[in-house]
Amino acid sequence: MIFRQLFDSESSTYTYLIGDEATRQAVLIDPVLEQADRDLKLVAELDLTLTHVLDTHVHADHITASGVLRERTRATVVGSVGGAGCADVQVRHGDEVRVGQLVFRVLATPGHTDDSISYLLGDRVFTGDALLVRGNGRTDFQNGNARQLYESLTRVLFSLPDETLVYPAHDYQGRTVTSIAEEKRHNPRVAGRSEAEFIHVMENLHLPKPRKLDVAVPANRACGQLPHPEA
Ligand code: FE
User: Fold this and answer.
1) Residue 108 CA to ligand 1 centre (angstroms)
2) Which of 11, 95, 114, 223 could form a disulfide with 66 if both were Cys (CB 3.0 to 4.6 A apart)?
3) Region 73-91: what's the mean pLDDT?
4) Which domains does the chain have, with CATH numbers?
């Protein structure tokens, strides 16, 4: 397997390029619009063909490159049922996305947003904003729900094998990867916390509204390609 973790410093977003060595087919997970050229250059340099673009949810903090990448490569855009209507394939819990010989299993992990999904690929899981390194996504907009997120974390993600590597959609402190075992033990929001305690913490974060919320959410429902207002 070919595996690369890419970073957008403006939104602190991780994008993942994963390729199948046998067929050279590849997928990008959570690509950022402004980094589309960088990502396509790497795809070409590694002699890969981009066949799929996966978003873990409709993002509020950056605009997805999925639409642009689809236009430029004819890749299939995959999103969650109830997420972006522009996706070519809408997946739900238990579905599989096959990229060459790689099989991504879809796990519904709602709570940060109602459309949040994670993708399990063998011994690694791409968790979007559901589970971050020592944290988790906020639950105060886009139909977020702290109770749902607690369930997604403790019943869905924490039921994966302890050694599963967790690759999140963001980190703001330079951390790149964690594991299910580490988060079970050390995630300050969840480890040793009851559902009620978790909900109390999430309801009292008082975070500022994301800068791009009003632009990014409608744009991402259209795979990052809103019609120009003058058109
Ligand atoms: Fe998010």
Assistant:
1) 15
2) 223
3) 96
4) 2-206 (3.60.15.10)
* pTM of the complete model: 0.96
List residues bridging with 40 in a β-sheet: none
- Dist. CA 62–CA 220, nearest whole Å: 9
DSSP 8-class letter at 152:
I
According to DSSP, the residues that pair with 11 across neighbouring strands are none
CA–centroid distance, 161 to ligand 1, in Å, is: 25
Residues 118-154 have pLDDT tens digits of 999 999 999 999 999 999 999 998 899 999 999 999 9
Rounded to the nearest angstrom, the distance between the alpha carbon of 115 and the centre of ligand 1 is 10
The confidence score (pLDDT) of residue 155 equals 98
**Centre of ligand 1 from the C-alpha of residue 22, in Å:** 33
Between the CA of 128 and the centroid of ligand 1 the distance, in Å, is 7
105 token code pair: 């299993």
Q: Confidence class of residue 231 from pLDDT cuts 50, 70 and 90?
A: very low
In sign, the C-alpha dihedral spanning 12, 124, 102, 149 is: negative
